[in-house]
Amino acid sequence: MAAPCAEDPSLERHFKGHRDAVTCVDFSINTKQLASGSMDSCLMVWHMKPQSRAYRFTGHKDAITCVNFSPSGHLLASGSRDKTVRIWVPNVKGESTAFRAHTATVRSVHFCSDGQSFVTASDDKTVKVWATHRQKFLFSLSQHINWVRCAKFSPDGRLIVSASDDKTVKLWDKNSRECVHSYCEHGGFVTYVDFHPSGTCIAAAGMDNTVKVWDVRTHRLLQHYQLHSAAVNGLSFHPSGNYLITASSDSTLKILDLMEGRLLYTLHGHQGPATTVAFSRTGEYFASGGSDEQVMVWKSNFDIIDHGEVMKVSRPPATLASSTGNLTVSILEQRLTLTEDKLKQCLENQQLIMQRATL
């Protein structure tokens, strides 16, 4: 477990209003708003300030599968089984514009860090990139051979990563529109993928109950976690880059310490599958959603206390160090002052992971 001085994550509040399973959650940049989408076709915008009325946005004709605030927080994107993406102004009016080009369910939507474009993934087997303000479809990335569950921009906006039911994770160059690499280590459908805040690696969740972390420069598998007893449906990096949180159909959320390569916490809150999880932009909070129609907001607590001064969230995201000889060492640069024994242990652990990966 965490150091004795650390506090455990605590359930801060929960929001009730959805009438079916919650599928997605996302915080606004200033953490004043939390958006959630549901199988009930409604988009809810909850206010973190107590006693504030939530906004319920209607417009989608079928289940909402994904939601993402723009970097400025002035826009909110959602995707749906009705094959459309909608961009909303998250105020009391709830006005929206529909974007149409996909021919099947839209599974994922994510804004680029400059807010000028966004990327979507769909059951039509394509990843599509759109211009936000011109409200225009730009281009498709079409090499997946099954449904695409998730697509995300890298922090610098130059790369796109996608996860598919074809059991692959693909890395794309946005400018050349070429597939740079395919990661094929998952034993089942890949449900979710995201970039580490440094942009140097990616984490993917799978129906095979695993989470895998790869270096996007060397394409080596850095870490492999088999901690859940059912499919992993979503994940989110803490903005410091030191922690990863996962949501699973086994009903739990798990918090992983990426520096130590170990499980920190298992959280039991949802009745039934936990479908989605997301850290706030500062990492002070995280939100989760489940098949129980609940949206839960948790206070992280561990993020600053656990590692003292190292973990102040105002620090720039740490980057992952890699490759010592032919071994990949997933230790954060901030922790490279580890004792030789600790470093040796890390190397041995990674060697075991790499051996398992090649079996």
UniProtKB/TrEMBL annotation:
SMART domains: WD40
WD repeats: from-to residues: 15-56, 57-88, 99-140, 141-182, 183-224, 225-266, 267-299
Superkingdom per UniProt: Eukaryota
A single BP term in Gene Ontology: cilium assembly
Pfam families in UniProt: WD40
GO CC field: centriole; centrosome; ciliary basal body; spindle pole
Full protein name: POC1 centriolar protein homolog A
